[in-house]
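[Q] Does anyone have a clean structure-token version of this?
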Amino acid sequence: MEKKKLLERAYKLGYFVGYYGHTEWVLWIIEEKEKIYSKAKALGVYSEAKEAYMLGKKEGAEKREEIINKGLSIKPEEEIKMLKTIKSELSEAVIEEQKLHYLAFLKSPEIIDSPRLLEIIKLVDKPKILNLPDFLKG
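[A] Here you go.
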């Protein structure tokens, strides 16, 4: 029973990632996948969990593409229900932590400061000795 739930969780996470087009390098997704995979290793179903995740990701992406191609702006009821289930099963605390981290990142001054590369370029400006002398400028 535990193995089945774990495989369903792996599938749902993959579906969520595929449907919403999330990158797999987002921290909370990495952590969630690691939890699933470590439990799967302990239960001896690691390869099945990996396959379930990839299948979910593929089917989620296909479903999203299908909806976009049909031009639907309203999702079918069963899709809404499934996505709500998937979202509720994902750790809300982890998602909230990532949102706060992202908001803090956006507020950091480094984002609006000029890139460090521009400071380096100023150091490499043409030396004044290479400019025309003032009496030749006319």
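[Q] Thanks! Anything notable?
[A] The CA atoms of residues 20 and 64 lie 8 Å apart.
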